[in-house]
Amino acid sequence: MDLRHRPEDEAFRAEVRAWLHDHLVGDYAALDGAGGPGREHEGIEVRRAWERELGAAGWIGLGWPAEHGGRGATLLQQVIFHEEYAAAGAPGRVNHMGEQLLAPTLLAFGTDAQKARFLPGILSGEELWCQGYSEPDAGSDLAAVRTHARLRDGQWRIDGQKVWTSLAEHADWSFVVTRCEPGSERHKGLAYLLVPMRQPGIEIRPIVQITGTAEFSEVFFQDAVTDGDLCVGAPGEGWKVALGTLAFERGVATLGQQIGFERELRRVIATAHETGAIEEPALRDRLADAWVELRVLRYNALRTLAGDPTAAAGSASVAKLLWGPWHRRLGELAVDVRGVAATVAAGAPYDLSEDQALFLYTRADTIYAGSDEIQRNIIAERMLGLPRG
């Protein structure tokens, strides 16, 4: 990627910065970056209102084609937006699943009718989405899904269970991978369905985590329904569509994610100065390593986004293998620089400090969004050409 900013890019950055300065006030400013990974439960209603404000100002769907309501922003401008957004401490986006995952999938695989029906609701910030992928016995192994759907009388009838579904209780819709062909196995016979979440056939049970919060839920489908024309791609081609969504998952927003990481790292470094831990050579070296590795994450993301021909099909897996363990190590650093004080809850009965919550939540970073083991398999098979295990 050519990182030399043209005058129009600098003008765009100034526009983004000015808009955030003028609108990130009151309840929005009070959130101060809340709602990120591990904090999705925070300020839901305020963040929903913020999403609508972003939509009204045209900040959703920046890179979408103009004919679908986007601004047709360049890749560098999209990077600029996400960097400025994170640097301003704006709230975590409540509809990441809709804008960053489903919308690109519809643009690539959806029918004209599906685009016309769903893209406007995402652009306006009115309709929220969740992802129905993982199952109790098919977490990182998406091809092992057992939730099934049958097309009867013009409707899909869905039965099964999904798990670790982010913000399911707040979502209006879900994109759900199901098995649609009886007797099919693995990657064959899957369908990618768009399913309304608020219906009698769906039960949502929040999962309380080690942090004491419940951003994730189990979702049970019992004769749940959706219209027959809400299958993205042809029935039986759900695997191809689902892989497309996973590729979009590691898009431009990763640069914003890394700005959030940098804010966390700065906080940990400040704590190290406060506690005197910065004087310990081993901890100081770990902090320096974390700073260097975060720069590596950034340049790897830029190279991948730019479509570097040396970045092979498994580049998204490389990125996940880089940031997952890095963030987990940052969580360990956060409590180590606090010393023994990190072992005591911030308040009764189980109030956690930011550092404690970071440590506990990042235990999951190497598991969710595809475990490290699965990412290594993808790299081995798709990048290195090694035989399947």
TrEMBL record:
Residues 130-223 form the Acyl-CoA oxidase/dehydrogenase middle domain. The keyword Ion transport does not apply. InterPro entries: Acyl-CoA_Oxase/DH_mid-dom, Acyl-CoA_Oxase/DH_mid-dom_sf, AcylCo_DH-like_C, AcylCo_DH/oxidase_C, AcylCoA_DH/ox_N, AcylCoA_DH/ox_N_sf, AcylCoA_DH/oxidase_NM_dom_sf, Mycobact_Acyl-CoA_DH. This is Acyl-CoA dehydrogenase family protein. Residues 7-126 form the Acyl-CoA dehydrogenase/oxidase N-terminal domain. Residues 236-384 form the Acyl-CoA dehydrogenase/oxidase C-terminal domain. Its cofactor is FAD. The keyword Flavoprotein applies. Keywords: FAD, Flavoprotein, Oxidoreductase. Belongs to the acyl-CoA dehydrogenase family. It comes from Conexibacter stalactiti. Pfam families: Acyl-CoA_dh_1 (PF00441), Acyl-CoA_dh_M (PF02770), Acyl-CoA_dh_N (PF02771).
